[in-house]
Amino acid sequence: MLRDGNVNDLEPLLERPLSARSLVASLLLRTRPPRMRGSRLVQWCGLFGVAEGTTRVALSRMVDRGELRAHDGVYELAGRVHGRKVAQDWSIDPVLSPWRGAWRVAVVAPGPREATERAALRGGMRRLHCAPLREGVWTRPDNLPRASAPAESWKTVDAQCVWWSGRPDDDPAALAAELFDSARWSQRAAVLTQLLIVVTRALADADDGALADGFVTGAAALAHIRADPLLPHELVVEHASNDELRRAYRRYEKEYASALRSWFVRH
What we know:
The protein has helices at residues 20-29, 38-46, 52-64, 79-92, 115-127, 151-160, 172-180, 182-202, 208-226, 240-266; strands spanning 35-37, 68-71, 74-77, 103-108, 131-134, 137-141, 161-166. The two termini are 28 Å apart. It has 267 residues and is of the alpha+beta class. The chain has ten helices and seven strands. The protein is globular and about 60 Å long.
């Protein structure tokens, strides 16, 4: 639980530290349309103790990497980061394909690979919600459309793997539990749901502490939603945590957008 409104209490819930780049990318990914004036992005990062110069350097580097476009002082998501927005939005309101018992199996193609390629493949497979069955073999139930993952992830995986379809001889529910540990995901989802409820209520005041804590909690919840293995209903023991976290996040997102607009007006 939050202690005295300190944003650092929730940083362990995030996948990465609150750098200027992650603050800018996360905010714009959650903004419609995903663009904002540089002066506001500087204000925003300042809320988390990031100096203006540090933010300006981060913005410049993001432009150089093709992650942002800049025009007349306005920055807009671009490139790979922007490409992730579609999959992120889909993960909040997912529509799963009907499951008829088949599993997809990706087998790494033979031949040497650089360490960077292997790392990219692991990241791509995570975004495709696949689990490693053994070295060089990844799998999951065949119930996800391509919209569930960014196009760049599909491109990375398809370049290194060949795909097969099949069915396990053993109990598929036991295999899914072993590979994806959905029970652990649900436990963490329940914790994040309660945290979201707390910070959403606090957003009514829209003060600096509530806004910062709310952002960190929301980012952690969104990262967890995106990590949902999205298993077929037939293979999941409990569905309530999935639904409750997404409902809490949608309520939070609406309240946070309103609080953020009010905060920018005051500042």
